[in-house]
Amino acid sequence: MTDKHVYLFSEGNSSMSSLLGRKGANLAEMYTLGLPVPFGFTVCTEACRTFYKDGKKINSFIEKQIDDALITLEEQTGKEFGHAKNPLLVSVRSGSPISMPGMMDTILNLGLNDITVEGLAQKTGNPRFAFDSYRRFIQMFSDIVLQIDHYQFESELEQMKAKAGVSKDSDLSAMHLYELVRAYKKIVKKEIKDEFPQDPKVQLMLATGAVFESWNNQRAVLYRRINRIEMDHGTAVNIQAMVFGNMGDDSGTGVAFTRNPNTGDNELFGEFLMNAQGEDVVAGIRTPQPLCELKRLMPDTYHQFKLLARNLETHYRAVQDIEFTIEQGNLFLLQTRTAKVTPEASIKIAVDMAQEEFITQDEALMRVDPHSLHSMLHETLDSTVEVEVLAVGLPASPGAAAGIIVFDSEEAERLQRTGHEVILLRRETSPDDIHGMVASVGILTSQGGMTSHAAVVARDMSKPCIVGCETMQINESRQEVTFGETILKAGDTITLDGSTGRVILGRAPLVAPTFSQEFTTMLYWAKRRKQMEVLGSVNTPKEAIQAKSLGAEGIGLCRTEFMFMDPVRVPIVQEMILSQNKWERKKALDKLLPMQKSDFLEMFRIMDGKDVIIRLLDPPLHEFLPSAETLSIEIERAKVNKNFDEVQEKEKLLRRVKALHELNPSFGHRGCRLGITYPEIYEMQVTAIAEAALELKHEGIRIHPNIIVPLVSHANEMKLVREQVEETLKHVFEVYKDEIQIPIGAFIELPRACITANQIARYADFMTFGCNDLTQTTYGFSRDDAEGKYLAYYIDHKILPDNPFTVIDQEGVGGLIRFGTENGRKNKPQLRVGVTGVPSSEKKSVRFFHGIGLDYLSCVPHLVPIAIVSAAQAAILAEETKAVKKDQVKSTV
Ligand code: PEP
Ligand code: MG
C-alpha cells in the first residue's frame, strides 16, 4: 500500500491499470504520448478499498489529495472550480482494472450550479448549451448520487418536447431548457426534501463516493460473476476537465473502433452524434450516424481522428475502442481500450495482424479466447429456405436464434428457468436488463446503434442481437409488438438473424456453421503448434464425420451403447437381456453382430487410418428397458383392452426390470463388471470390431482400431477382460487367416484405478481417464443431483472455485490423474495416456493436462476446435514459462 491515492495523468502509464483502472491507465498513457486528452487525474482503486473499509466514507486524507489535484487541474485549464464567470466543469467516471462496459456509473458536467451555469452561458455566449449541460448534470447526479428514478426526468423531458412541438432533444431552445432545469430541481426537492447540492466540492465528493459505490451495484456484481472478475478489487475514479460535444453544430461526440468489431475488417468503424454529449451515443437514446458521415461533414477532423486511431492501434498492438469528442471543431480523445469484438472478428484480426507481421503467430493464437469459439460453432440461418421477414434492423451481433417473445427481463428469466428459449424485445436495453439478456437466446431493440448497450453486451455474451429496428413498435402494456401489419403477442415465436439484421416470423430452420478462411488458418496454426493429440468422443458414424471435419485426429472414445439404442435394435437388445441362459443370449447377440459390424465398418472407413478407440459396453442393462412405471401403466391398459398376450409379455419384462433394479446405478452392474459376468456381450462386440477391421484391411483401407475396457477398478478385472478379448481376437484371426494389431486399453474412472494404475498398466496398452465419472467418484457427487441442487451455492459462496464437472479440480481429481499417469508409466514409460469428459476441451484444464504430460484429449465433435486452440495455447504457455525459468536460473548464477 502507498500513501498516494490520487495520480495526475502525467504521473501514470498503461502498465498501472491495477492501481489506476484500465481507463485511468490508458488516459495517462495517451496524455504522456502527447495525444489530445483533456487534463485530469485519477483517484486510485486503493482509495476505493479504503472507502469501503472506512464505512463508505472518503477520508480527509484522500479528500486533501483530491483538492490538491483540483488546484493543478485549475492551473492547467486556466479555469476555476465553482467560479461564477470562468467555471471549471469536470466529468467523474468509473474505471476498473478489467473493463466492465456500462456496468458502473459516470457523471458529466459536474461543477454546474445556479451561478456557474450563468457564467458558462455568458462565457460561451451560448445559453442553450449551458442549460442543456445543467439539465443533463442534474439528471445524472440525481440518478446516480441521490438515487432518484430517472424515469421522472425522462417524462418531464418528453412533456417539454411535446410542449415545444419538437421531436429531438437538440431542438429544444435555451428557454425550454431553462424551464426544464427548474422542473428538474423541483423533482429533486420533492424527493430529497432539500435543494439540489450547489457547492461543487460537495458535488465532487458525493459523486466520487457514488462511483465507488457503483462497484457493488447489482448489474456490476452480476457482470463480474458471469465474467469471473475478481470481486474485491474496486474501481478507480477519473476526474477530468469537461470538453463539450453539445456546443452546437460544429461539436459532437462518438465512439470508434480501429477495425470493424463485427467482421474484423481493417477499416475505421464507428458512430457519432452531432451536438450531443458523451452518453448519448452509447445509451441508444438517438440513433447515431456512421463515421463516414463525419468524413463528409468535417473532413479535416475525420482525417486527424483516423491518423490518431491508427497510431493508437500501433502503439497498443491491438484493436482499440476509442471515445472522442469534438468541441467547436477541436478533437479530443476521452478513452481508449482494447476493443471487445465478436469471436469471428477476433480471429480475423489476430490472423490478419500476424500476416501483417504486426504480431507473431503465437501471439495471434494466444489472442483467441477458446471459449468464445462456442458461438462460432453455433447455427446460422438456412439460406435455402424462404422466410417471412418482418423487419430489418442493425446486425449488432451475429448468429441466429429462434425463441418466444418476451418484453421484460424478469419474464425472460422466469421463462428460461421453465425451459423456454426466449427472445428479449426492448426499446433499448439498460444495464438493469443484464439478467434478462443472460436468460435470452437473442436480443432485439427498436432503438440504438451498433455501439448501444444492447449491441455491446450481446456481442460480449456472443448472443445474436439486432438493434435500431425502427419499424418495430412495442406496446408493453398490451404485451404486443407491431411489425407493419403484423401484430405479435408475448409467447409468439420469431427468429433473429444477427448477421443480417433480419427479424423473421416463426421458427426458421438453422444450419451448422461454415468457417472463414481466417478460422481455418488459425486452426491450422494451432494444430501445428499443439503437442497433445485432439480426438473426438462420438457415438455414431455421423458424429465421426463431424468430428473429423472439425479437425479431430481420430476417435478417442466411441461409446458403443448408443449403437444399441437404435429403435430397430432395442427389441433385440431387450431379447438379449431377457434371455434365461447363455445360449438364448448368444442367439440374440448373433442378431446384433452384423449391425455392430456395419457401424464399425462405417466408422473405420470415415476415419481412414486414424485411431479409433472403441469402448466396450458400459451402462447397466436396465437402461435398455422401459421404466417400471411405464410398464405398469401399459400392463393396466392392456388388461382393460383384454390383450392378454401383451399383458403376459409386459409382465415378464417388468419382472426383469425389477430384478435388474439397482439402488445406485452409477456404482452398479456396469462397465467391465458386465463384460465379466456376461462375457458373450463383449465377445460379440470384439468379434464385430475384428471382423470389420480385417474386411477393410482386405479392401486395402487403412484402419487403426483400439479397444478400451470401461470402469476398471482392479488389475485382475483388466487381466481377465484382456484374456477374453485376446481369445476372441485369436478366434477371428484364425477364421479370417489374417491378423491386425488392436491395442487394448483401460478406461480409468475410479480412484482405486488411479492409485493402482501401475498394476492395471501391466495389462493395458494405453489408458484414458474419464473425468466425468472420476469426478463423481472422487467427490462422491452424483453429477445431476449436484448441478441441480447444491453446486451453484458452492460456487457462489466460494466453497469450490469452479464446477469440477466443467473445469478439472487440479488438486483432487487432477491429482489422481497426475498420480495415475506417473504410476502407470512407472514400468511402461511409453504408456499412451489421454483424457476425456467435459474438462478435456476447457482451457484451464487443458493447460493442466498438458503440464502433466498427457498424450491426447478427446471431446465431443463441436468442441474439437476449442480443444485444439486450448492445446496450442497450453504448449505456448508452457514454453514461455520454461524460458522465464531458464532466465531466472541464468540471472542467479
Ligand atoms: C467419463 O466418465 O468421463 C466418460 C467419458 O464416460 P461417460 O461420460 O460415457 O460416462
Ligand atoms: Mg464414464
Ligand list = phosphoenolpyruvate, magnesium ion
CATH homologous superfamily annotation of the domain at 532-621 and 668-861: Phosphoenolpyruvate-binding domains
Level-1 CATH class name of the domain at 532-621 and 668-861: Alpha Beta
Number of strands: 33
| Strands side by side in the biggest sheet | 14-24-23-16-17-18-19-15
Low-confidence stretches: none
Strand content: 15-25%
The whole-number mean of residue pLDDT values reads 91
* Overall geometric form: elongated
Structural class: alpha/beta
Give the helix proportion (percent range).
40-55%
Main beta sheet: 8 strands, mixed
Model description:
With 893 residues, the protein is an alpha/beta fold. Among the domains are: 99 residues, D-amino Acid Aminotransferase, Chain A, domain 1 (2-Layer Sandwich), CATH 3.30.470; 133 residues, 3-Layer(bba) Sandwich (Glucose Oxidase, domain 1); 284 residues, Phosphoenolpyruvate-binding domains (TIM Barrel), CATH 3.20.20.60; 40 residues, no CATH class. Helices cover 48% and strands 17% of the residues. It is built from 36 helices and 33 strands. Strands 14-24-23-16-17-18-19-15 form an eight-stranded mixed beta sheet. It has an eight-stranded parallel barrel with strand order 26-27-28-29-30-31-32-33, surrounded by seven helices. A hairpin with a 2-residue loop joins strand 11 and strand 12. Helix 27 crosses helix 28. The protein is elongated. The protein starts with 5 loop residues before the first strand and ends with a helix. The mean pLDDT is 91. Phosphoenolpyruvate binds next to strand 27 and helix 31.
